[in-house]
Amino acid sequence: MVVIDDLTPGSDLSLLFLNEPRVVERHEPPRYQYAAEFFTGKRPTHVSAADIASRAAALLTSAGWRQSATTSQESPGRTPRIVVTGRHDNGCTIEIHVTNDNGPAPPSKVWFSGRTPTMALREPEEFRWPEPIRTAETVTSGHVLCYECDGLGQCPECGGRGWAPDETRGRENCRACRRTRVCLICRGAAQLPISQLSSYQRGYYAELDR
Predict the structure, then answer these.
(1) What is the reported pLDDT for 106?
(2) pTM for the full predicted model
(3) Is residue 184 classed as helix, strand or coil in its secondary structure?
């Protein structure tokens, strides 16, 4: 906030807030990050873009941030900008983008963004397969255990998590339950009424034809 107030006096700092932490790494346990994305201020009329960038670098350095880079970015059809990047030993980063236009147009904008390091919010936990909702001893009269989940009620592929581990992406949506988490045959009931079984489904229960 001190940097924003120094470089762009008069900015409404009440508009600066951190978004909710978002998942940036989906391997177990998931890793989260806080980020403030591009708070905008106006460059003072009497200060050049280069001076703003120089002042930003000096402020970051004096506050204990390691200035990793001051670069110029140019893209076709876009106004050139100077980017100052600072990194702290605690893993936080700050970027300050200054539009590099010093013509007669109104003062250009200065964008500020910051991010915390990624962090896990819990210790790794070994997944424990849930206990069945129904068993042969507890199935309701006139029903049979679901042939798909065998009484589990939860999705038999993901165990009710709604996702499955993926080596590359960390996790992927469960293809069996499509993130509903429950068995798609019994819809979580863990049992099926005998009177409503199709001829195909009855094929799973040889004892019904005895």
Answers:
(1) 53
(2) 0.63
(3) coil
